[in-house]
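Anyone? Bumping this.
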Amino acid sequence: MPEFFINGKAVQAEDNQTVMQAATAHGHYIPYFCWHPELSVPGNCRICMVEVAAEGQAEGEGWLDIACNMPVTKGLRVYTDSAKVRARRKETLQFVTLNHPVDCGICDKAGECKLQDYHYAYNGSPSNSIDAKVHATKHHDLSSRVVLDNERCILCTRCVRFTSEVSKSHALGVQDRGDHSLIRAVGDGAFESDAYSDNVIDLCPVGALLSKATLHQTRVWYLKPTPSVCPGCERGCSIYIWHRKSEWRLQALDARRNARIDRVTPLENPAVNGPWICNKGRDLAQIFERARAAQAMLKGRPVDLQQAIAAAQALIAMARRPVTLVSSWASNEELAAFAQALGPRMRCFVKPDCQAAPGEVLQDGLLIRPDKNPNTTGARAHFDALPQDPRSAFAADTDLVLVWGEGYSFAQLPPQARIVVLNSYLQPENGHADVFLPISVQTERSGHYTNFQGVSSAFSACFPKPPGVADAQGLFEALGAMTLKVLA
Amino acid sequence: MTGRKVIMNFPVTATSHSLADYRARGGYQTLAKVLREMRPEQVTKEVVASGILGHGGAAFPAGRKWGVIKLNDEQPHYLCANADEGEPGTFKDRWILENAPHLLLESMLISAYALQVHHAFVYIRGEFDLPYRRLAAAVEEAYDGGYFGKALVGSDFACDIVIYRGAGSYVCGEASALITSIEGKKGYPRNRPPRLTVRGLYQRPTVINNVETLANVTAIVAQGGQAFRQIGTAKSPGTQLVSISGHVQRPGVYELEYGTPLAAFIEEDCGGVLGGGQLKCIVPGGISTKVLTAAEITTVTYDHASLTAAGSGVGSGGMVVIAEGTCMVRLLQILLRFYHHESCGQCTPCREGMGWMHRIIDRIVAGQGRPEDIEQLARISRANDGTTICGMGDAAGYATLGILAKYRDEFEYFIQHRRSKFDGRLEVEGPEAAHA
């Protein structure tokens, strides 16, 4: 535990820490482009220069060196904001912006760009150069998901190191040298098939690597990040779902853009996913923005939601051997409400709502898990899993099946049983159910999922639920109360 | 008047590079004696006692570098000869590779024994053709002669050697970029710490020495470190191979004992300036050292202390003679074009700064210069000083600052008049043209 000094304040560092690590851990900010806590230290951006004073030297008499590669030694005296350091940062930013196009006006990164922030914080003066900038590719497709603007690239190599150290696809490298160096993907399509490729977009400190899905769609300051949990697999990575701020609601354009997932980024959570998520997590819109079921139905006939709830309650009250197929996408709160209201009256099995899509990565050493449902663990805390042969879940005299969530074929249900379906999405089966109740999706409610390690993570509502749609939790509480009343 | 010889002490003939000739000159006897009679630490002790400084450009004491290696740390060590001689104006290692490859190999074997290295490397410049062929042939001869492989010269010491050819990058002559290149990666220099003697090639302790530094080891061990110290000056023991080129009557490689008067060497041994011209300045040790004007070198002797006191350095021993009438603006343009082309692009100040300086000097030469461009060049040079991963950024800065400080009037003239103060040429007419 060596003690050293940052700007005259004593700091207790861990053994083998660098000045950057110790400073960051103790709330002293040192700017950086290329350094990342989860990646190796290349020391190439040179913006983290700090002043080191030797024994007997005062501030301003020391020498400059990079903090990210400087081991902490006992009694080391470091200055992060001396006149020397400030002058050096200004010079370095002059270099960084020399060939950077400064096209913030059309750059998706504007507003969350390190270079922009540092320019305002540490430089602030226009370029000293009058010569033409080095021109390079403005739009280079690294894959079908990621586009590279080589002019904006400051060659910090974070993306290269991510693919070689974290995702292990070794898909990116630096081609050529000097100020005409280019980040390029290897020719064998490794970047296209890298299941974590979109992390390089977050890693990029400038707007060089951008998502093709969100390119030029919106400015980040119109968006609000809501903490959530990725439902793509049982890992349950913590994420931010970015959606339009209510004060920036669009009036004239397509109103659906006000309730749209604009992008998904990782929410750093060392217990679950660290700072990464996989590409499936980026594409949550493809899951949640499918056609929604918003109309309650009795055998395909549209009815009022309250009418449908009453009909479901009547069926449940009458049933002697009811079975429920519990959704593995239900939140812990919904599961608890169900277990309390209806659980004792029914045989319940947890069904997998989603199976891996063809070609989807089943499992890898980093994040992706084989079970593609977020809360199997939470549901299994209450109920058994659906047996291998689903028909064995049903007794010969099963007279009611409550299907909660999607992913179950009616063909496998006993023919004599009445069917109550709770689903969020428009599916042909919905109309064949005796009672169909539309329910809200994850982005419209709050709750918790428990991942396969037993870690519970919270998600919050991003959008209001559509009219005519019920929250499963309230629905079960209503059904339970009514059933009790009937029985009494 | 160049003093005693350590390396160039035999007549070069058509066969003088062969194993037979080398043996006839007493070759490989020192190795046999070392393997028979000396412990590894004793060899290192002699090298430390000799006080030999690195001949690659940084003049770091070779013995101190060796002393970092722990012999019994139960991990492999590596030795690498840096034959990636790319500093413009320097071609002295080439002489050793072409004419005394066995001297290098014997020295490397002695060094390998001292450092307990069982895999030695020679990283040779890709453009070197004859030096490579001579060295490769010498390695083959040495293997056949039982000097490499297992149980060499009847001892229980084993050592193998690999020649690795570079692909033409200047930066790969920097020690850490060199090992990164050997590892098969892009030739990027590494940050220190860790030092290469702690974690170098394949993350193991590695000693990298210049070819000439290593070539001296045989002589040091043969005559003893203290005896070697008698050659040269107190602070710069030994000799330096100097490759002299440019506007000089007799260019070539000369072995200079440290302490030799510099002006006399150029005037007498090298025949003075080409075509009987006046000396304008010299680049004493590769273009990354600061130029010294004719007036500055009159009292300078060729050794580290004297050249450093004059504001320059021994560098890599690549001396360039520049005659009066040469346009220094054009000269700087060529230097900066080189540095721009060779910057590896890893760290920001050098990657951006070299191109920036190159664009400015190109603009000045094109007649579009502004008076503030001189200060701008100096500012970029200073911003590269000590801020980059390797020394290339600093080197370009030193060279630029040296020329700007001493020939500022030529730059001002060029910017004001949009043409060179001289006729803008770098060529000086040779003796034939002068007589015609």
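Late reply, but here is one note on the structure posted above: The first helix of chain A runs from residue 19 to 25.
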